[in-house]
Amino acid sequence: MGSEGDDQQSPLLGSYASSFDPEESFQRTGTQWTAMAHVITGVIGAGVLSLAWSVAQLGWIAGPLMLIVFAGITVLSTYLLCDCYRSPDPEHGPTRNSSYTQAVKFYLGDKNQRWCGLFANESLYGVGIAYNITAASSVRAIQRSNCYHKEGHNASCAYGDTFYMLLFGVIQIVMSQIPDFHNMEWLSIVAAIMSFSYASIGLGLGFAKVVENGMIKGSIEGISASNTADKIWLVFQALGDIAFAYPYSLILLEIQDTLKAPPPENKTMKKASMSAILITTFFYLCCGCFGYAAFGDDTPGNLLTGFGFFEPYWLIDFANACIILHLVGGYQVYSQPVFAFVERWVTRKFPNSGFVNKFYTLKLPLLPAFQMNLLRICFRTTYVISTTGIAMIFPYFNQVLGLLGALNFWPLAIYFPVEMYLVQKKIGAWTRTWIILRTFSLVCLLVSILTLVGSVEGIISAKVS
Questions:
Q1: Mean pLDDT score of the chain, rounded to an integer?
Q2: Which of 13, 48, 156, 177 makes the best surface tag, with the fewest CB within 10 Å?
C-alpha cells in the first residue's frame, strides 16, 4: 500500500494490509445481479425447512414479525460490513479486504482475528454436523413416504437414521479429497439448483394444504406447551433457528471481492444485499407462514421430513432427494474453508515434513491422474468422521440448528461488523452513533445468550427423553 494510505491508517489498521494493485492477475467482473445470486444461494439452505416450526412456536404475530426483524438486523449488519471492504475510504480506498477474517485482522488486530477464526471455523464445522443430520432425515423420509403410500397413512413405517449418517459420512470422506474451491464450481451450481427446488416444493405443498383445508390454522400465541418454562425454551429455540437461517457475513466480503468498479463495490453490494434479503425474506415468510397455516399445532420440525404431507408421495421423494444432493455439495462448500485454513497452518508449521508436503500421483482406470497427500487424507477423513460421530450422538434437527444460530449470530453477524465499522469510520466513544451501535450489539448479544440457553435445554431434553 502506498505511503498516502499508510498515513491515513489508525494504529489498529497498521498491523495488516493488503495492497490494491490495478494490474492484478484476475479481473473482477461481478455485477449487482451476480452478487444477488451468490447471496441468495448462500442464504437459502436447510434452515428454511425449520421456519414453519419456528413460526408455530412464536404464533401468528411474533412469528412473522421475528422473520422481518432478523431480516432487518441482517440488512444493517451487511451495510456495516460492505463499507469495510476498502480502506481508508469505503468507496475509493486503495486497500482491499477480500475475506471476513482478513478484514477483522486489518481493522481490529491479531487477537480479534484469532477469535474470529475460532468462531468462523466452529460455524463451518457445525454446519457439517447439521447437514449430516438433515441428509439422513431426508433418506429416512423417502423410505417412510414410500411405506405410507403402500401401507396407508396409519402404518408404523419406523426407520432409523444411523446407517444413513454413516453412509453420508463415507460419501463425504471421498468428496473431501477434492483439492479446493477451484475444483468444485459444478458442485456449487448443483447445490444451488437443488436448494431452490426443495424450498419451492415445500412452499407449494404448504400453500396447497391451506387451500385443501379451506382454513388457516394456528393461533396468536403459537403452539401451547405443558408449562410456561417449556414454552419459553421453545420460543428461544425458535429464535435460534431463525438466526441460523439468515446471516451470511462470512461470505459477504468474498462476494464483494468479485464485483467490478465503478460503481464503487460497497454501493453495488448494498443494493444486491437489500434485493437478495427482500427476496429471501419473502420466501421465508411464505414457507414459514404457509407451513404453520397448513398444520397449526401439528407443524413438523422439518417441513419435508416431518410428514405433514403424505401425497403426492413422488413429489415428497423428489424434494428430499433434492435436499440430499444439496447437502452432499453444501457440506463441501462449508468444509473446504476449514480444510484450507488448517492445511495452510500445518504447512507453514512443518515446511520440511514429507507427510505434510509430499504429493503422490494416483491413476485409476478411466479417470484422470489424481494428486494424493497424506496430510489431506488423514486430516479430512478425521474431520468427516468427527462431524458424523457428533451427528449420530445428537440427531436433533431443530435443536442443533438453534444452537448453531445462537453460537454464531452475535459474534459473526453483529459484534465484528459493528466494531470494524466503528474503527473504520473513526467514531468516537459516547457519540450518538457509538451509543446506538453498541446498544444494538448488546441487545443482539442478550438474544443470542437466551437462544443458546433454550437450544442447549432442547438438546438435553431430547437426549434424556
A1: 83
A2: 156
Q: Judge whether 135 and 164 are in contact, CB under 8 Å.
A: yes
Q: Taking a C-beta distance cutoff of 8 angstroms, is the pair 199, 287 a contact?
A: yes
Q: Cell 426407520 appears where?
A: 159
CA distance 307 to 145: 8
> What does the alpha-carbon distance between residue 128 and residue 49 come to, in Å, rounded to a whole number?
16
User: Dihedrals φ, ψ of 259, to 5°?
Assistant: -80, 145
**DSSP SS3 for 10:** coil
Exposed, middle or buried by CB within 10 Å (0-12, 13-18, 19+), for 378? exposed
Nearest CA among 206, 121, 217, 208 for reference residue 411: 121
User: CA distances (Å), 354 to each of 59, 178, 341, 381, in order?
Assistant: 59, 20, 19, 19
pTM, two decimal places: 0.81
Measured distance CA(457)–CA(234) in Å, rounded: 9
CA separation for the pair 346, 339 (Å, rounded):
11
Q: Which residue has the cell 434479503?
A: 277
- β-sheet bridge partners, residue 359: 373
